[in-house]
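pasting for the record
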Amino acid sequence: MNFHRFPLFLIFLIGFFGISQEKTTGPVVADYGPVFKIENPDFKTDMIQEFKVVFDVMDSPESHTVLNQKLETAARFLNLHAQAGIPVSQLKVAVIVHNAASKDITHDEAYKTRFGVANPNAGMVQALLDAGVEIIYCGQSSMARNFPKEDLIPGVKIALSAMTANIQLQNEGYRPIKL
């Protein structure tokens, strides 16, 4: 190594490790939704407004053993805002599930019957429900993909359709985020 560049390399290395951060989960969803803490952002977050969001989740990983990161976005949303100091009472989150993501909201027994393994999303879905997230399943997907109410994790609600649930929640002031 060229020793006259070593101090520059050392400064770079120390600076890199000094500014790099680890993602953390919680405080709302303890084991899911890791996020970075953002110190003093230029675009200031309105700490008194209510954040009402509906996530539209239709895709799922091809692997039956992988967590659906699109579903995990709801946990990230809750955790990042709570970590920033926004009261949980100001965070209103709904997730509408349809299409290929249908399998991700089934309980372990139903999932194992179809795919031979436990549902990797079951713990996360339960944690989201426990955190007050409303998880709504498209009734049309339920029928088309043969996932009846009995196969769903308790607490998941069936709607007439994903479209109907999206319109109704938007009429209630929820902002849509399609994933």
